Amino acid sequence: MEYYSTHIGKLIEELGRLPGIGPKSAQRLAFHIISMPADQVKQLADTITAAKTNVQYCRICGTLTDAEVCPICANPARDHRQIMVVENSRDLAAYEKTQKYEGVYHVLQGAISPMLGIGPDDIRLKELMQRLQGDVDEVIIATNSSLEGETTAMYISKLIKPTGIRVTRIASGVPVGGDLEYIDEVTLLRALQGRTEL
Amino acid sequence: MEYYSTHIGKLIEELGRLPGIGPKSAQRLAFHIISMPADQVKQLADTITAAKTNVQYCRICGTLTDAEVCPICANPARDHRQIMVVENSRDLAAYEKTQKYEGVYHVLQGAISPMLGIGPDDIRLKELMQRLQGDVDEVIIATNSSLEGETTAMYISKLIKPTGIRVTRIASGVPVGGDLEYIDEVTLLRALQGRTEL
Known about the structure:
Two copies of one chain form a homodimer. By secondary structure, chain A is of the alpha/beta class. Chain A has helices spanning about 5-15, 25-35, 40-55, 70-75, 90-95, 125-130, 145-160, 185-195; strands spanning about 55, 65, 80-85, 105, 140, 165-170.
């Protein structure tokens, strides 16, 4: 590409590899980065390197964290007898934002997907079963409401049931603010099946 | 944010400052970067730093380039008597992609915008006038077809006219593949005014 400097071309290429960044966005981002003050650019580059270098998986729940044990697992004020099983750290963050969940988490780092060749041994199920040998009252399965998430939920519940620990699944239904008109039939049916007394 | 590691939080914040990257995209990008192999992350960070450090403005045309003079200005095969005036390096790149323009460029690094307080002295007009003291046949004004671009085009043409150098403006009209039904009235009118003999 004669019209770009080699360095800009490389930067556009690198940025274009990130998910959701097309060639046009990559170009815009690259030119923006070039126009940023040098110290801000340095900070961006350093933050990227630092995040990759310092972030690790929590020894207990498996979420991404700075220390050996994440702040949630290390917090004695949380209810360690209630474990919510999520697919990834982003789902954990989503529930943490509600600020209403007092228990701890278990991050599977994936979901069972026969299509993608991901089996029960490829996600952190063994680690979950090990945790259940401790003092646990309830396992709340909060995997996504997708085919993979449902399969994983089903598998986990069958695995845990024999231990006698209570296994629950988060409710499926119409999202708050959702317009019935635009919601798919399966969700509507789930909402009906899961109706509660008023 | 207890639910994120400090490093991920910082990375999300840094990425969220880039244009067109909202909080959700920043989060997705951050988690993607964490999951990338360490050498790829290093490469991304290094490319960002290298681009900022090594890219400079071409001494002649003002585009972003690796050397003191950009490959286009340094190319003796190009017609240096024909100068296309563009607002920024991205616009230059857009015309270069056509692979049909044989002349050179002049990058204004902006456009006159009274609203944003950008006057004629804030863009590279002085540099353009200096170049015109050399051997120049034609100045093609290819600023955007926006209010600012048109204002700038008008200003430049008035500035150059007295020198006797030919000043032209790229055509405005219906984009190729465009459907008349969805094109605004001003563009339709411009297309009519600029009609050519068949």
